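Sample 1 of the test manifest.
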Amino acid sequence: MNEKKSTSIKGLVFREFFLGRKSYASLLIMAIVVPFMFMLFMLSAKFGNLRLMEDVDEIIETIYIMSLYMPAFIFSSAIYGILDAVSADFNTKWNGYMFSTPVKAEKFIGIKFGIITCFTIFSVIMSILSAVIFSSVAGKSITSDDISIIMCIIALCDFAFTFYIVLAYALGINKATSVFSFAVVACILGALFSFIKFADEHMVVDNPFELLILENARMIAPFTPVIIIATIIIGYILCVKFSKRRER
Amino acid sequence: MSNYENAIEIKGLTKKYDGFTLDDITFDVPKGSVMGFIGQNGAGKTTTIKAIFNIISRDAGTIKVLGLDNIENEYEIKEDVAAVFDELPFHEDFNAKQISIVLSSVFKNWDNEKFKKLLTRFALPEKKKIKQFSKGMKMKLQIATALSHDAKILIMDEATTGLDPVVRNEILDIFREYLQDGERSILMSSHITSDLEKIADCVTFIDKGKILLSGYKDDILDTHGLLKCSKADYENIDKEDIISARITDFGVDAMVSDKEMCNKKYSGAIIDKTTLEEIMLFYVNRDKKEWN
């Protein structure tokens, strides 16, 4: 028998990035364009036409808040490239073909979740760095509440995307999309109901929405590293289990 | 891997679904041979192949590939097995060069130089996206990927369906070269019996989840024959001697499985040579016995 060398993962990693390239390209464009737009708005609000508006201070504050938190959404959405790859796995006959190859599910799924882990770390670093830069430019300091909200955004995006990937392996891509959409709508309705209830209880507060987010973020933030790690580990375990499932 | 006589050994394979059962499938693919796995659509060919790859769980039976159990030694076996399905399993935006990069991570014995040589031989462009390939080009690309990691067995599931005769012939020539060293084997499932007549050494018929026939192709073709007679003469034929009979306005064609015996028993009858396609047709209609 031929002496066999071991395989590297380079080709499979390349495959994941190639299939998600359109999402990564969109992310890169957004990561450049959005901060640039914020900068332009800020400049206009301080030195240009927008400063002539009555509520310019409110506009500056809104732009500032968005510039702090929007990068977290943008960088977290890098995981969307993995969703593109998962979708391609199901829409071509790749998943069936993988059964005929010597690649174990642990390796194949492990590569996907390894990339998700890397993107998550990247999101945390880049989001906090962006927040520090924008707050410096605005002449303000980043607060622990800002970090809490950023971590919650990343944890939420991680959870949502991982949940979708697990659903895809459990149910197939079409059913996963339906179930995920239903879950998102349910969450939005739940959040809306919570907000209305909260606003009723705190009628005297000026901005109940901001207070609701802050209260929840403060509560959840200490646990976000655990949530992110648990999401990735449990997501990996479940995806391996479902992908190894044999037709009954 | 241990020394083995048969590239694939299937014994008593059973798999039950609602409305269909793969029932006690037993056949071997001898080392160095081409096994034609014939049956009509829905007969159980793909289910059997899925069982070989452990894509489906089985209810009973054993499967050995290259002398090893296909479940206990699943990943070891798969290094030496190449699968060719009816569709290319790569996203259409890939080109051949990128596919080679991917597969170098899949198979330990992936040989990029061999792959490039096969691309040149098949006149396949390296940098063109596969969505721009014709069906024949896609199949040739699949075969090139299958032949580029020193596989001992090629398992093909309806791979030549939909290809024109020129491309099919080209592919059969490639398979003849593949088999030259006598160590490699092919299991080829198809309902295009003409291809199998050209290349197969052995043939296995499957119908409704059961094996009807399995053996060397030449033996099967030698022992089977098409008895042609008038309707009046057909009445004198013992129905136990025939598989089934096609009754037309012009006479009767009856498939016999023991040509020598029937030649002696029905000395005046004409028993013509037959083809795999006719054998399949008559066996499929065996329950009806008489049909038209």
